Amino acid sequence: xxxxxxxxxxxxxxxxxxxxxxxxxxxxxxxxxxxxxxxxxxxxxxxxxxxxxxxxxxxxxxxxxxxxxxxxxxxxxxxxxxxxxxxxxxxxxxxxxxxxxxxxxxxxxxxxxx
Amino acid sequence: xxxxxxxxxxxxxxxxxxxxxxxxxxxxxxxxxxxxxxxxxxxxxxxxxxxxxxxxxxxxxxxxxxxxxxxxxxxxxxxxxxxxxxxxxxxxxxxxxxxxxxxxxxxxxxxxxxx
Lengths: 114, 115
Description:
The complex is a heterodimer of chains A (114) and B (115).
Chain A: E1 3-7, E2 10-13, E3 19-26, E4 32-38, E5 44-52, E6 55-58, E7 64-70, E8 73-78, E9 87-94, E10 104-105, E11 109-113
Parallel strand pairs in A: 2-11
Antiparallel strand pairs in A: 1-3, 3-8, 4-5, 4-9, 5-6, 7-8, 9-10, 9-11
Chain B: E1 4-5, E2 10-14, E3 19-21, E4 24-25, E5 32-39, E6 46-52, E7 59-61, E8 64-69, E9 74-79, E10 88-96, E11 103-105, E12 109-114
Parallel strand pairs in B: 2-12
Antiparallel strand pairs in B: 1-4, 3-9, 5-6, 5-10, 7-8, 8-9, 10-11, 10-12
């Protein structure tokens, strides 16, 4: 069966510090991968998605970036965090074959920028 | 424009009551997909159901049931005989070919089931 991991689970970082969140998927190949952010009490905002290694699409201009160095690894980064980057970050995957597939989410990372 | 509208922000019920969550969507595509997800307090989104636009058959899974009506662009979700473990935020989402099948989420409905 497929599983998706995210780490760290929680993170407290000062403004201006760098960020690296990692997401890995097991049990599937060539997945589509997604990064979402959920601000407190709000809905989900798609940040980035990837259909293959090195292929990243950005949905929202911001100081975050994403990379996919391996087929089942998706990394969210920032060089300098802002207070507004605080939130709950969720990684998700979906099957590449077929269309309109459901996405499966990881446990998330709670980021607090102080 | 909001593609998925969940008009109910919060719903509070007593255990064993039924609760219906409304979801109204907007799309010009003829082929699209609808989803419901559950987000318990732990935070992880749990996939509940996927429906394509050509299948209007209602579905029941245990205490959960879904009513899809294309005529009103609605995909409502009912929890029968609610339990405390049903307390969560529930999201409705839409996937359209015109949007590369990315998910457009509603704002979510917080369901609180009181013992």
